[in-house]
Amino acid sequence: MQILGFQKTTLLDYPGKVAATIFTGGCNFRCPFCQNGDLVLRPDCVPPISEEEILSVLKKRRGILTGVCITGGEPTLQADLPDFISRVRALGYSVKLDTNGYRPDVLAELISSGLLSMIAMDIKTSLRHYPLVAGSESMDVSNIEKSAFLIRNSKIPYEFRTTVVKELHCLQDFEEIGQWISGAESFFLQSFEDSDGVICPGYHSCSKEELTSYLSTVKKYIPNAALRGVD
Questions:
Q1: pLDDT band at 178, cuts 50/70/90?
Q2: Using the 8-state DSSP alphabet, how is residue 49 labeled?
Q3: Alpha-carbon distance 170 to 146, whole Å?
Q4: Is 53 helix (H, G, I), strand (E, B) or coil?
Q5: Beta-strand relationship, 19-24 and 3-10
Q6: Fewer Cβ close by (within 10 Å): the C or N end of the chain?
């Protein structure tokens, strides 16, 4: 595993758990608003953290922590991800995976192996605008559809979420997203926040009024949809 970041305690990344968060390197997307630019574009320039160091900390913090969130970058690019999750689970932890959903084959393996306790998948935008927002013109959008279907039928708790960017999203996108994942267990709209790590600076967050309008559109199809991190 190429582990490039480790947050020892978080109350935000794993709903209902006091958790640690592990950040893997590399990604198959180039979302221009991504805030983890170094992990995506320059993973070889970030000092790695060994699996043994991570596992040692997790072993010591049993009883304080109850969950581990694995995010990135894109974790499903790591060939030894199943083995690493197995080692984390052996310590008694629940594991949440954050993914962009572009490798449904890996997701299917992890789900069928019973390694995951929760899955969070980013829904970048409506399917027709996916290549633009994901920064990958040649992408096969059917992989995204397959992963969303797998997750919804996995019997594992899950959430879908969209980071809303003023320049990249419009009301019609959320109409189409709502129709696509209609009846989903949970869906969150979270506002883009600018930072030094953004791959392409210059993007902006939407107003609360705009976000509320998008949420109202989605709620026609997903009653449990909500805003996250919006005052």
A1: very high
A2: B
A3: 24
A4: helix
A5: antiparallel
A6: C
CA distances (Å), 198 to each of 127, 138, 146, 185, 229, in order? 23, 22, 28, 30, 18
Average pLDDT over residues 35-45: 92
Task: Tell me: pLDDT of 231 over 80.
Answer: no
* Three-class secondary structure of residue 223 per DSSP: coil
pTM beyond cutoff 0.85: yes
SS3 7: strand
Q: Is 101 helix (H, G, I), strand (E, B) or coil?
A: coil
Superfamily of domain 3-162: Aldolase class I (3.20.20.70)
Confidence of residue 42 (pLDDT cuts 50, 70, 90): very high
Q: Angle at the Cα of 81 (from 106 to 136), degrees rounded to 5?
A: 55
SS3 state of residue 39: helix
Res 84: pLDDT: 98
35 token code pair:
């805030």
Q: How many CB atoms lie within 10 A of CB 62?
A: 11
Gap between the Cα atoms of 185 and 158, Å rounded: 7
